[in-house]
Design a protein that fits this description.
- By secondary structure, this protein is mostly helical.
- The protein contains 4 helices and 2 strands, in the order H-H-E-E-H-H.
- It has a two-stranded antiparallel ribbon.
- The chain is flat, with a radius of gyration of 18 Å.
Length: 108
C-alpha cells in the first residue's frame, strides 16, 4: 500500500533540496522566481476577490500572466545555470550585462 503522507514528504523534501541547489547556483534568479510566484498568488487572489474588468477581462489577469511567465523564465534560467560548465563565465557575464541594462548600473 502507498503511504500518501510519506510520498508527500519525500516530494516536499526533494523540492526544498532542489531550491537550495538552485539558490547556490544563482541567487538573483531564484529570488526573482520566488518573488514572482508570490506575485502570481496575490494576482490570482485579486482575480477571485476583485470584480473589476477591463475590456471584459479581469483586471488582475495581466499581472498574473506577467508574474507566472517571469517566474517560469527565471526559474528555468536558474536551473539551466547548474549545467553550464564551459560557458559559465560568459553566461554569467551576459546575465550581469542584462541586469545592468535593466537597472542602469554595472555590477562587478
Amino acid at each position: 500500500m502507498v503511504n500518501i503522507e510519506e510520498t508527500t514528504m519525500t516530494c516536499f523534501n526533494r523540492i526544498i533540496l532542489e531550491l537550495k541547489r538552485v539558490w547556490q547556483d544563482s541567487p538573483p534568479l531564484t529570488a526573482v522566481t520566488v518573488l514572482m510566484i508570490g506575485v502570481f498568488a496575490a494576482s490570482v487572489a485579486g482575480i477571485a476577490l476583485d470584480p473589476r474588468t477591463i475590456t471584459g477581462v479581469p483586471a488582475w489577469l495581466k499581472p498574473a500572466k506577467f508574474a507566472i511567465s517571469t517566474a517560469i523564465f527565471c526559474g528555468t534560467m536558474a536551473w539551466l545555470f547548474r549545467y553550464i560548465n564551459i560557458w559559465e563565465v560568459r553566461a554569467r557575464n551576459g546575465l550581469d550585462t542584462c541586469r545592468s541594462i535593466g537597472t542602469g548600473s554595472r555590477h562587478h
